[in-house]
Amino acid sequence: MTDTQRELQIKNLHVTVENREILKGIDLTVQPGTVHAIMGPNGSGKSTLAYALAGHPGYQITEGEILLDGQNITELPPNERAKAGLFLAFQYPHSIPGVTMANFLKTAVGAVKEAPVSARDFRQEMRERMKLLKMNDSFAGRFVNEGFSGGEKKRAEILQMAMLQPKYAVLDETDSGLDIDALRIVADGVNALLGPNMGVLVITHYQRLLNYIRPDYVHVLVNGKIVREGGPELALELEKEGYEQFEPVGATS
After folding, report:
1. Contact between 160 and 189 (Cβ < 8 Å)
2. How far is it, in rounded angstroms, from Cα 203 to Cα 47?
3. Which of 6, 19, 44, 46 gets the most CB atoms within 10 Å of its CB?
4. What domains are there in the chain, each with its CATH number?
């Protein structure tokens, strides 16, 4: 595999939800070892992009394609995209009563790797990952997201990412609903996992998350299109100036 193939490529992506076109031609390339931030106002299509990348059946790709390390995953179901190396951290993770985090993670790892998982090796790796993320061992015995605080839910998502070791991770508004302390904990967890073998796409409204997870590139998404791109300084500009500068006259959200 050549270096040029090691990238997540989004080409001219058009996505429709309930017969309404939300994304109107997105072009974006994420390479291993880089952090990209997608910023934009409510209703701009940020979460639509995340769900379309993950293969949610309610988000219909009408044009364009998604390539992961040269493999066209546009038509693949979510589980096959996960096996190919794509991970989505949800904005609002669901709870799974009766299923412990440890059992959930062991099942997920086995499904993605398509191979039996040694219980001993799994437990050892999980403990190491939890230590890296500064998580108490008791977390593994709790039911998935059952009674979790907002911060604990997001940390559980990052633990999943740590165990699955994806090639590309999409973090959909990971900062949503977090106070400043929880935000720092989650961001520290993400930063602990960053490295040359994983590309990250961070989706957020606000610059505050990017104070802790520093992006290499920032893309502004408005009305289903990327209207501007730049470095981390662009996020600071958006925090100061807002998104109205990109809105066409007479546009409605």
Report:
1. no
2. 8
3. 44
4. 3-246 (3.40.50.300)
